[in-house]
């Protein structure tokens, strides 16, 4: 069957011919509908994140997938069910406490592989198999957009951690600051915009479709070249909730100043090493005197995918129409990996329902 | 009546003659038993923390108090009830959302004064008054040690925030690292020692009574001159829970490396500004990839005092006997403010029950 992946030593994805997988006991066979492309894919292609499966000379890409059950193979699914796969799997042949508890997203990197990212083939192929426990049911009406469930689930988990960190006292966030106007940032703006005043940090010039989306959601675009993160409380207002999706390490520290008292910043970026000066004494004191919190968040689990199903169903159609800028047939997959200024979210399409 | 306080322009506490207070409506009059001394008192005396009440030329010290109701004055208390006062009060003449919710500890500094610390007289006097809502009942058997309820409540709050931050997934901490072997650090070691493997960071030479206490509780003393915070996972083990009570700003950042995956560090120190280098990129990535958290925590509210009553009753007698190294009659208060190497926790005594 066709698959899209990278080969060791190559710098761009290729169309590969790989064997159609056979489901083992407890696995279903899934016919792939669409697979989204995101920043992590580009990092994997560039070799700065993740890695090949051991003893394999290629990695099938894709971790944002939606498909249809082709062969239930004695799982609880029926042929034709629409499903989205979670990303993490136990390392070869095993399991561990995190997977047994349904909390694979809390496993340290040594206790997990990630399909399409690190150590296991992804979903960007005509078919894939998956154990039942790692497949989440998707309503048929959401099948076409089901590739958005994975990124939404990433934000569901980060927000869950952030809210949990404030759960021992009364906390009703009124302001949120999303750092980053890439696809994950824009999805998060859309997720929060109905419930609070949302600001979104970027560094793009107008006209720009991501700025248009921010503003169409009623949120405020903040150009980091004019208003640095730490200046936002003075220029706009202090932020109860910050969601960092830039991978720019100084933002983690600048967020402490941008938070309102009792606020929390969720960090999701994965920067490279970078040493710089901080006024650690002042930040430490600010953190303590105002009961602030920082939470790091990686990946997401089945419960976050299920929350994402409800969330996706509630996102406004005009946002989704503007957000998904390209659905590309799998034989023309290259277009989905280009990053034109007008691209926001692209996906590779293998089949329709 | 006698009070112990500092006068503007003076560098050490003095015995002052101040008027005996009259309880206003809703306030009870309390006869003071004992008032503890801690590091914050020394910072207040040195002028590096807190401040005088507006328009007053002196500040009565003391925020760790226990007393006996002398005049209930139509509150729900009876004459003879043992009580401990919380520390924060609304700024003059008002109230605000934090106090109305019983969460004064979550008020930003502009929305509160702190008795004996910042903007309001403390409890180090023969009598004090307090609104009923800020008095916590203490069993008579704990009257003599009731001055420990305030510091214990500080840790109760910090631990509550830390546990809350990990409440969205299964988290059962097995290892804890208490940074600082001052009174607050030692109390926290005692609070945690039954439930997990506890390590305590200090930089004192043996023989030292604080090290003896750490070891008598079954905890491990870590000398920061031999084993820096970030080396602890290799030398000992990674820490699920870190409690920082040193005010040494680098510890806030070094804690990120000392944490186990999914761990949390509670920061309580209040350092001065201090700029230094950090590998912010690496720390940011570490934070995200292992779902780590940092929570800042200041002060404590009535619920934490109530939890502290239960906690104090459960602390082992040998610990408490070794921990309280000096009870000083109020006319010899100077001794309680000396900081000899053999001093751990001292209190000024005004009266007995």
Index terms:
homodimer; 353 residues; alpha/beta; Quinone Oxidoreductase, Chain A, domain 1; Rossmann fold; seven-stranded mixed beta sheet; 11 helices; globular
Work out the oligomeric state of the chains in this entry: homodimer
C-alpha Rg of chain A (nearest Å): 20 Å
The 3D shape of chain A can be described as globular
What's the mean pLDDT score of chain A? Answer: 97
Roughly what percent helix of chain A?
25-40%
CATH class of the largest domain in chain A: Alpha Beta
Q: Which stretches of chain A are low in confidence, meaning pLDDT under 50 for 5 or more residues running?
A: none
**Based on helices, strands and strand pairing, what is the structural class of chain A?**
alpha/beta
Detailed description of the structure:
The structure is a homodimer of 353-residue chains. The first copy, chain A, is of the alpha/beta class. Chain A folds into 2 domains: 2-137 and 316-349, Quinone Oxidoreductase, Chain A, domain 1, CATH 3.90.180.10; 155-296, 3-Layer(aba) Sandwich (Rossmann fold), CATH 3.40.50. The first copy, chain A, has 11 helices and 20 strands. In chain A, strands 3, 5, 6, 10, 11, 19 and 20 form a 7-stranded mixed beta sheet that branches. Chain A has a 6-stranded parallel beta sheet with strand order 14-13-12-15-16-18. A 3-stranded antiparallel beta sheet of chain A has the order 2-1-4, with no helix packed on it. In chain A, helix 3 packs across helix 4 (183-192) and helix 3 (149-165) crosses helix 9 (302-314). In chain A, 53% of the residues are buried. At the A-B interface, helix 3, helix 7, strand 16, strand 17 and helix 8 of A face helix 3, helix 7, strand 16, strand 17 and helix 8 of B.
